[in-house]
Amino acid sequence: MFGVVPVAYALWLSMTNSSGQLVGLGNFTRVFADYRFGSAFAHIGLYVTLWLVSLMVLVVTLALMLHGRLKRTSAVVRFICYLPGAFAGASSVLIWLILLDPVASPIGPLLRAVGWNSAAQVMVPENLPVIFTIIAFWTGAGSWIVIMYGALNGIPNEVIEAARIDGAGAVQIALRIQLPMLRKWIAYMLILAFAGGAQLFVEPQLVGTASFGQVPDDWSPNQLSYQYAFVAADFNGAAAIAIVLLVLSLGCAAAAVFKAGLFERGHS
Amino acid sequence: MDIPSTRPGSRRARALVAVVMAASLITACANADPNRDGVQRAAGPFSPAPQDSSSEITVWVDATRTAAVDAYRKAHPEVKIKAVTYSGGANGSTELRTKVELFDRTGEGWPDVVWPNVQDLAWATTGATPFAAPLDTLVDKSVLDGYVKGALDQCTVGGKVYCLRNDLAHNVLWYNKKLMDQFGYQVPTSWEQWQQLGLRVGKEHPGYLVGEVGSPTTPHVYFWGSQCPAGVLTGDRTVTVDLQDPKCTRMAQLLDPLLSAGVLGTRNKWDTGFIKEQADKILMMPGPAWYGQALFNAGYHTPPGEIAAAAPLKFAADAETWTGAVGGGMWFVSSHSRNLKAAVDFVTWVTTDPGYTATAATYPAYGPAATDWLAAQQASGYYANDIGPVLEQAASRIWTKWAVSTLYSQEAIYASTMVPALSTGKSVSSQMDVWQQAIVDKATALGYEVN
């Protein structure tokens, strides 16, 4: 009810005007023509690509390493990886705002060595996809490593042992046994990470405030939707953007579900 | 054997229905444009809600203005008043508009008095029943006449006064008298002299600054002061934007050599790095009346006896001095208030009472109150000269054609467009077209007709 009713209401709003008259796809063509629409989706597209690639490669690699060679220290490492995720979204961004200010940051000398002498130079809009990827990885990857580790534990030892007896090394076991058996978990991670990434709002909003407005208030589609709703008082346009995001997320989820066979029964 | 689920004829019929439905959905009759009802929505005649002079009034304020409510409570214990703190006045806050739209739907809940964001003027004074009550019929004319010349212009829409100005934030030239004396420099009186002195500072005392252009408020200091038509309202939703006007380009050309000489800061003046590394290198800084206490004293901790104020700079070719402003708050009374008498008394008292306004943080917009405020400032012993005459004369010199009461913020546009460019070494002149386009785009997206 809490999912379907808001979606139905958003769909209704996106197809009507402020007087409640049906306007067809009018709100969609209007927001598509908005000069901010393309750039907001380009920003989020670049960010989501960086975030998903880094998440997939690093989380799976780290989980495999922890499960293999680093098994003895894995409990401590998993706990350390998980810790940053304990900070809620806004507070983790605030920590990063300090870390990214060359004057206040403990890694200030490093930032200055790159040529960044002020927070304004670090937080220029073109750096943001990378900055947000680092923030998201730092706060979100730990819990995925724990989940992947758990999924790796679910692979029967006999299978691994059999592969080992057949002469498979660690890399071959990872590529031919563990990764295919983790497929559904990776798809699950992709779906949730995509949905979360596409809805980026807090990070650009806070960085925008901290950079005294240097980051535009319509950097991400969610921010643009917020601008429509609460600056232009145009709830119908805001709903149209929300529906676009929903369709994209559902499309991505459906692709991941069918590609990974998430709902298939029998073998995993 | 597979059995076809439908006959070809019925399949075609269903496809036809689907196409017709999709086509009718796409080309549905009504217009999706939110501005379709026309943008020139003149306010109807003001008809107050049924009045109850004993009812409680609710005042929405930002954290700073809770002191005003406390002071009024002490002075008028008989008035029932409830204060609600919200994000009012914060640049870009849309809380008031969002809540008022909700109250408009439910038909109740409006506060009686509000400390709004300056952009709120754009929506709260228009429509058939504007949220802000017209105050020229509710406040004595003798009181309205007491506000500094031009102070109520921003509150005036369609000939009606919709707000009372709390304070003015007119720009003057702040300078460090101790450093100026030490370097043997004369205080400039024109923008051209300021530029020449700045170029000298770049050669003779590198590292010192004569201003900064890395803050969102930069246009309000330099381009507003130059009478640049970056946004001149010609109607409720009609605006002129012309950054190629000579009054804009003359300021850009004035700033560029100073940027190249390194005497104009490109960081925000509130940036941690600026405060740590450049705050004690400020020789001059054009800026608003509140810089003295809020920026130099509280922000930079510049020692007492060093900071002084000089008259706002003028262009040599101009007959008169005009200046910009960075801020200047205001009060709305709700047109839905059931106790207009108490609400109007509150906004009048907090902007005119000499006892309260003399202790306020900023320069009062009410003329007689400003005298006591300036006396209190001078008595603080912080300044290196008597800032009273300078601030008093400059108060009525704000160029009133610069529109701050638009749905979009010039500060936000400058911050996202110009600041990143300037911080990477680009000149102001090279970015004027980009800046122009950003203003036009934003204004158009919010339903303004730009010409």
From TrEMBL, chain A:
Residues 46-256 form the ABC transmembrane type-1 domain. PROSITE patterns: ABC_TM1. One of its GO terms (biological process) is transmembrane transport. Gene3D superfamilies: MetI-like. Pfam families: BPD_transp_1. The chain crosses the membrane at residues 44-67, 79-99, 130-152, 185-202, 238-258. The keyword Transport applies. It is a multi-pass membrane protein. The keyword Disulfide bond does not apply. InterPro entries: ABC_transporter_permease, MetI-like, MetI-like_sf. GO terms for cellular component: plasma membrane. Keywords: Cell membrane, Membrane, Sugar transport, Transmembrane, Transmembrane helix, Transport. It is found in: Cell membrane. Belongs to the binding-protein-dependent transport system permease family. This is Multiple sugar transport system permease protein. It comes from Saccharothrix ecbatanensis.
UniProtKB/TrEMBL annotation, chain B:
SUPFAM superfamilies: Periplasmic binding protein-like II. GO terms for cellular component: cell envelope. Keywords: Signal, Sugar transport, Transport. InterPro entries: Bact_solute-bd_prot1, SBP. Residues 1-32 form the signal peptide. It is found in: Cell envelope. The keyword Signal applies. PANTHER family: ARABINOSE-BINDING PROTEIN-RELATED, SN-GLYCEROL-3-PHOSPHATE-BINDING PERIPLASMIC PROTEIN UGPB. Belongs to the bacterial solute-binding protein 1 family. This is Multiple sugar transport system substrate-binding protein. It comes from Saccharothrix ecbatanensis.
